[in-house]
Amino acid sequence: MRHHELIKFAMVGGTTFVFDLAIFYSLSLTILETKPVIAKVIAGVLATILSYILNREWAFKNRGGRERHHEALLFFIISGIGVILQAAPLFIGNNVFDMRSNLSVSEVVVVDFVLGYIIGNLMQMAFRFWALRKFAFPEELLRGGDAGSTDLHPTLAELNDEELGHA
């Protein structure tokens, strides 16, 4: 069960990563060229909304059990901290070390990617996986078969159908 959740969480993360990346570069290479941290925060917030929907309805669908508004509030607080963690290396690189001033556009793209999407993503991903499982979608509030439904022991075919989104 834990590996299934991790794999689903990683797939949601991959999807929102591409979504975040497209929005960030669309903004930071055009209207927010001089404000990459703002572009990163906007992209992060939009990716967080998509992430909530995908995590709630797929990755952690058998967890939680809280009222939706309480669960959503916890998710967005945790994800807000994640957005800050992800933007922190970009903020430090641009505002403390003033890295953008002496770089070409192609160098800026690479530096922004390393700071915001490699270093920042690793920090926020580790924090969010731990915090979402612990607070927003806790194990003690399981749903579905794990919470006492009539399908306590699904077959391998049923599990595969669920993985493919058929259940």
Automatic annotation (TrEMBL):
The chain crosses the membrane at residues 9-31, 37-54, 74-93, 113-131. Its main location: membrane. It is a multi-pass membrane protein. InterPro entries: GtrA_CellWall_Glycosyl, GtrA_DPMS_TM. Keywords: Membrane, Transmembrane, Transmembrane helix. Residues 8-137 form the GtrA/DPMS transmembrane domain. GO terms for cellular component: plasma membrane. One of its GO terms (biological process) is polysaccharide biosynthetic process. It comes from the Bacteria. It is found in: Membrane. Belongs to the GtrA family. This is GtrA/DPMS transmembrane domain-containing protein. It comes from Gordonia namibiensis NBRC 108229.
